[in-house]
Amino acid sequence: MQKLGEFKLPPFFNYPPYFTLQPVRETREKQVQLWKDLILDFCRNQKIFIISLEEDFPLFSNSAIERSLSHEAKVVFLSALVTDGRAEWMDKGHKKCLILWMRIQDWADYILRFVRENGLEDGVMTVEDIRSGFETRGTELAGIDRGVLMRALKLLEQKGKAVIFKGNSADDEGVKFSA
Amino acid sequence: MATTASLFKRHKGLQGGWHYGPSSNGSTASLFKGDEHSNGYNISQSDLAMKSSSGRILPLFLLPNNSTAALQSYQPPMTSIPRLPAASVTTSCRPIFISGEVERYLLPGVDLESDGSDRPTLLLPFQSSLLVLTSHRLVFIDEASASAREIALSAIIHAFPLKKSMSIRSMFASPRVRLQVSISNDGTISEKGTKSSVVTLVMRGKNTDPDVFYGKFMEVLRSREWELTASAANQGSTGLEGSSSSGSGVNDLRITMPVVGVSGILRKEQETWESTDKSLQDAFQDLNALMSKAKEMVQLAEKMRQKLLTTGSNSQGSSNDEEMGSKQDMQDWLLSVGIASPVTKETAGALYHQQLSRQLADFVKMPLEKAGGMITLVDVYCLFNRARGTELISPEDLLQACALWEKFDVPVLMRKFDSGVKVIQNKSHSDDEVFARISSLAQKPDALRKGISPSDAAFTLGIAPALAKEHLLSAESRGLLCRDVSAEGLRFYINLFNEIDSANIYTIKSHGLLNAWQLATTVSV
User: Care to name a GO molecular-function term for this sequence (chain A) (predicted)?
Assistant: First the structure.
C-alpha cells in the first residue's frame, strides 16, 4: 500500500485516468466524489487546513505513475468541496482554499466537549493555549488553524457559551467558557 | 411476296422493263432499265411504302445486305405480345454492365407499347420505368420492384424518325419513338430472330427532351459498339496490335513486310510501339475519344503491369523494395480504375444525383469491406473520383449523393460522429459489436497497465486510426472507457470508476475488474 507520509493511499490512486478530468458526465461525477473524500481524509489526517494552488500539494500528484492533476482539475474538485460546504475560497482569485474537514459547527461542539471533559469552565485560556498548549496536546485542537478556531469560538460566543476578550498584551486574546 | 422492283414500279407508276439490283457504289439498291449504264432510279428507304388493305401506309425495309431479292416485306402483326428478356440490376437498382458497355443516357418515365393492333398493349410489367441507354442495350428499370427488362441494340432493325407534326394533339401527347425489333420464335425480342415487330417508346417524363434522346440513340445505334465487343471476344486480341476498328484503317495502309529473324522481331516491336504511341495520341486529343478508349487504356496499363512483374522477378533483388513499391502502386491503381461507365450530368441530366447516389452505393461496397465496415467520407471522395477518371464529382455532389440514400433502400448509410467526422458504414454494422471488441481489448493485461492509444486500437481492430479514435470516444461516452491525458498523449483505460465502492475504498473484491487491474499493475512494479 502506498503512503503519503502517514496517510494510507487507496488503490485507485495508481489508476492514471484518476488524474485526468473526465469529460463524460457520469464518470466525472464519480471521479469528483472520490477526490472530495480523499482530500478531506488526507487533510484531516495531516491536519492541513489550507491548500494553496500556487504550491505543490502532495496529494495532487503521483510520481509512481507520473501523473498530476491539472490546474483546472484542482479547481473543479475544490469548488465541489466549497459547494458542499466543506471548504471555502479564501480569495477572489481562487488561489487559496480553506478546507473544513471538520465544519465550524463541529469544531464548536468539539471545543465545548473538550472544555467540559477537562473541567475548564470558568477558566480563562488564551487562544494560543488552545492551539498549542499543554492541555490540547493529542487532541484535534492541537495545531488548529487560528482563523478556524476564532470562528468556532465566535460561534460559541453567539450561543452564550464563551466570551472572547482582548488580553493584556496586544498579541493575544483570551476566552472564558461557561457551562 | 412482292419484290422491290415491282413494288417500286407500282409506287412510282413506272412501266415494265425495269429490274432491281445494287447501285454502282454498292450502298443503295437501284432499278435499271436495259443495261447498267442507262438511267436508273436509286431506291431509298422513304421510297418504299405499301398501302395495306385497311388503308394504312406500311413501310418496307431494306436490309443491310442490299443483295438482290434480300427485301423483306412487312410482316403482319404478331398475335402474341413480344417479350423482353430480364436484365440484372445491383442492390441499388443500377444496371449491371457487361465488359465494354458504357452508359450513354438516362430517361425517366418511359413506357413501352407494342404497335400491333389499334389499341397499344404494354410490354413491360411495370409503368413509368427509367430507361438507361447504353452502348449495347436499352435497359428499362423499375425502382419500386428492383427489376428490369432489356432490349439488346443488336435486336433493333430500324428506328423511325421522330414525327414532327404540328397538330394540337401531338403537342400534348407524349413523344414517341418507334422501333422495329427482331423477334425469335418464342416471342422474345432478340438479335437472331426470324420475325419482327414494331414497338413504341413512350416518353411520359416531364421536362424530357425527345430530340436529345433521339440524337444520342441514333449515335449509339450507328457506332454499333456491341459488335466490337463480340469481335474482340472472338479474336481474343488486346486491341492494340492493330486489330481495333479505329486503328484498322491506318494499319490497312501500312505496308506489311515479312516478319523474319531478329530484324523481324525488332520491327514488330517497333510497330507495336508506334501503334501504342498513336493510340495514346488519339486518346488524349479528345476527351470523348478518351472515354471510348478507356478500355484500351486499362488494357495498356495491364500490359505495363505485367512487364513490371516480369522485370521485378528478374532483378537481383537490390532494388526489390522500389519495384515492390511501384508494383503495389500499379496494382492499387488498376484496382481503383474500376468504373468504366460513370454517371455524368450529360447522361443523366435531372436524374444526376439520384443515379450518382446509386452508383456510389454500389462502388462503396468493396472499399467498405477492405476497411472493415466503416470508411471516412474523405477517403470515399478520393477513391470514387479516382475510379471515375475524368468525370470528377465535387464534394457537394458527394454529400448530396450520400444524403439521398435515406430515400432509397440501399445497404449503406452516412453517419456523423460527435466530433464532426462523417463516415459511410454498412447498415449491418453494429456499434455494440465494436464496443465489445474494444472492451475485451481494454481488459488485456497490457491495456490494464498502459491503456490503449488510438493507434493501438486501429492496429488490433484493423481499421483506420481516425475511425479507431472515433470508436474509442464513443465507447468513452458510453461509460466503457476513461481517458488519460499525459505527456504520452491521449490513452484510454477500461472504466474502473464504476467498480470502486466509495464507502470501502481500501478493500478490493476478489474476482472483480478492480482485482484484475490490481494484479496486472502490481506485477509490473
Answer: protein homodimerization activity
Percent of the residues in chain B that have a pLDDT greater than 70, as a whole number: 65
Rounded to whole angstroms, the Cα distance separating B52 from A8 reads 112
- Hunting for cell 469481335 — which residue is that? B231
Q: Please list every residue in chain A whose beta carbon sits closer than 8 Å to the beta carbon of residue B510.
A: none
Chain A touched by B493 (CB under 8 Å): yes
pLDDT of residue B311 exceeding 90, the answer is no
Name residues whose C-beta falls within 8 Å of residue B449's C-beta, 6 or more positions apart in sequence.
B520, B521, B524
CA angle, B222 then B224 then B226, to 5°: 160
Q: Do B491 and A16 touch (CB under 8 A)?
A: yes
Higher-scoring residue by pLDDT: B16, A53:
A53
List of chain B residues whose C-beta atoms are within 8 Å of the C-beta of residue A16: 451, 484, 486, 491, 493
Cell numbers describing residue B154:
443488336
Whether residue B482 and residue A22 make contact (CB cut-off 8 A), yes or no, is: yes
CA angle B521, B523, B525 (to 5 degrees): 80
Q: At B129, is the secondary structure helix, strand, or coil?
A: strand
Between residues B303 and B360, which one has the greater pLDDT? B360
Q: Which residue has the cell 493555549?
A: A129
How many CB atoms neighbour CB A31 within 10 A? 24
pLDDT in tens, B330-382: 555 555 555 555 566 666 655 777 888 888 888 888 888 888 788 889 999 99
Split at pLDDT 50, 70, 90, the class of A81 is very high
Mean pLDDT of B390-400: 86
Q: What is the pLDDT of residues B58-96, one digit of tens each?
A: 555 544 444 333 334 444 444 467 888 888 888 888 888
Distances (CA, A) of B223 to A61, B246, B292, B402, B458: 80, 11, 11, 35, 51
The residue in chain A having the minimum alpha-carbon distance to the alpha carbon of residue B501 is A34
Which of chain A's residues have a Cβ under 8 Å away from the Cβ of B517? 15
Element counts in chain A: helices (H) and strands (E): 5, 10
Q: Does the pLDDT at position B430 exceed 60?
A: yes
ipTM score of complex: 0.85
pLDDT, chain B, mean: 74
Q: CB count, 10 Å around CB of A74?
A: 21
B516 alpha-carbon distance from chain centroid: 56
Residue B231 burial class via C-beta count within 10 angstroms: exposed 0-12, middle 13-18, buried 19 and up:
middle
Which residues of chain B lie closer than 8 angstroms to A15, CB-CB?
493, 496, 517
What sign results for the dihedral spanned by CA atoms B91, B96, B102, B105? negative
Q: Residue B72 is placed in which grid cell?
A: 423483306
Cell reading at B274 = 508506334
CB distance from A52 to chain B under 8 Å? no
For residue B137, give the nearest of B118, B153, B161, B160 by alpha carbon.
Answer: B153
Task: Confirm or reject contact between B301 and chain A (CB < 8 A).
Answer: no
Amino acid at B60: L
CA distance B237 to B239: 6
- 3 state DSSP class of B151: strand
The pLDDT of residue B147 is 87
Average pLDDT over residues B469-488: 90
Strand segments, DSSP code E, in chain A are 3-4, 7-8, 50-52, 61-62, 67-68, 87-89, 96-99, 124-126, 162-166, 173-177
pLDDT at B252: 43
